[in-house]
Every structure is written in structure tokens, then in C-alpha cells.
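Propose amino acids for all 224 sites.
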């Protein structure tokens, strides 16, 4: 088979409250970077869309484009998704972002500019939903593309949430992992695929090891 072109997203988004503060999450980007390195070692053509994290891929063959906000990532996906064969959406995109800040006197200002001064009164943030980037990409996918999403949920609803995401977002696979995976060096995951099949890691494994395991699963699916 031809060398796959793989697009991987990794890391958190930072949604600005003002010029210096943001809403974010604890995603380290480790798994996405490990996937990019492993894919490059296999000779795949790799593009990594990387959020604001403190790590970078080790393999020279990985092309990196950075993002900070969900809107930044949206623009990169619009640019890169049409030409990829495989999309692995490992980024932890914020579900909400601040719409505006409201001061105690009732006045408001748009977020992302200036700096809110500390005061004695409570500060209220109004949040609005971000775009569902994976669903948007999947809705415009071309025939032959292979899309992998992630579901990070409490263990008691992990399976139900993953299967629902698989159908709702029109994906080929969903990697379901519990909340404690966030910012951890290891991962315990179940991969749910279309057609009702599933594979489990049989316990927690290092993210670098899991990267090879997951790409084996993807590669096997691409050959079918």
C-alpha cells in the first residue's frame, strides 16, 4: 500500500479570558507526540498539529504546526484534512470558551485583550460552546479517509460514551480511556471500531508503547 499521509492533533487549547489568562486543561500532548514519532519511524508522511505544551517530537521527519485556541486548530484542520489519509484527533479541545467578562459594576468587555484587574468582588465569566472540530471534519471527509477520535470519560460511562461518539461523529475508531489518563505517562484504553469490534490494552501501558499498538491497529484496518 502507498505510504499513508497521517495528520495528528495533540495537546490542549487555551481559550483566553484576557491577554494573560486562559481556560485550559491538563492535556500534556504526550500521546499525540508519541504517535507522530512512531508514525515517522514507520516511514509515514506525518503532520502534527500541536497545542501549547512543553514537549516536541524527536523525529526529524515530523512536520509541526502550532495552535493555541480551538479557532486556531479549526483553521489548521481546514488546511490539512483534505490531503490526509488518516486523521488521529488526540488533541483535548476545550468544549467552552469565555464570551466576555463582566465586572462588578455591570460593564463588559470582550476577552483576549487587556488585563482584568484583581478586585474584591466576584468575577463572572459567560461561556459559549466551541465548534465540534472532529464532527466538522468528519462531515466533510472524502471517501477513503480514516478518522480516529478519543473519548475521555469516567470509567462508569466510558463504553457508552465512546460508542455514541463513534456513531454521532461518523468515525472509524474511537479510543476510549478513563479520566486518569490525562497528563499521565501511561494509558489504559479500549479501541472501538465500526462493525462492533473492540480491542483492549489489557491494563495500563506507557504512551510510547501504546502509540505503536494503536498504529498497528490502524495499519491493519487500512489494509482491509
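Proposal:
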Amino acid at each position: 500500500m502507498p505510504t499513508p499521509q497521517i495528520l495528528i492533533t495533540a495537546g490542549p487549547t487555551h481559550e483566553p479570558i484576557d491577554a494573560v489568562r486562559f481556560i485550559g486543561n491538563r492535556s500534556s500532548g504526550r500521546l499525540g507526540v508519541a504517535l507522530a514519532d512512531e508514525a515517522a519511524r514507520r516511514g509515514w508522511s506525518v503532520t502534527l498539529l500541536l497545542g501549547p505544551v512543553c514537549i516536541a517530537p524527536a523525529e526529524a521527519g515530523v512536520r509541526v504546526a502550532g495552535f493555541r485556541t480551538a479557532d486556531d486548530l479549526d483553521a489548521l484542520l481546514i488546511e490539512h484534512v483534505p490531503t490526509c489519509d488518516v486523521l488521529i484527533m488526540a488533541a483535548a479541545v476545550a468544549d467552552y470558551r469565555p464570551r466576555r467578562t463582566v465586572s462588578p459594576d455591570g460593564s463588559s468587555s470582550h476577552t483576549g485583550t487587556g488585563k482584568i484587574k484583581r478586585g474584591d468582588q466576584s468575577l463572572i465569566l459567560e461561556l459559549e460552546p466551541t465548534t465540534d472540530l472532529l464532527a466538522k471534519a468528519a462531515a466533510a471527509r472524502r471517501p477513503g479517509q480514516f478518522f480516529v477520535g478519543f473519548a475521555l470519560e469516567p470509567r462508569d460511562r466510558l463504553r457508552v460514551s465512546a460508542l455514541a461518539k463513534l456513531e454521532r461523529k461518523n468515525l472509524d475508531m474511537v479510543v476510549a480511556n478513563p479520566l486518569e489518563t490525562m497528563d499521565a505517562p501511561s494509558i489504559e484504553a479500549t479501541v472501538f471500531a465500526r462493525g462492533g469490534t473492540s480491542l483492549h490494552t489489557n491494563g495500563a501501558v506507557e504512551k510510547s508503547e501504546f502509540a505503536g499498538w494503536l498504529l498497528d491497529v490502524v495499519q491493519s484496518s487500512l489494509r482491509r
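Helices lie at 30-41, 70-80, 133-139, 158-168, 207-223. The chain is about 25% helix and 30% strand.
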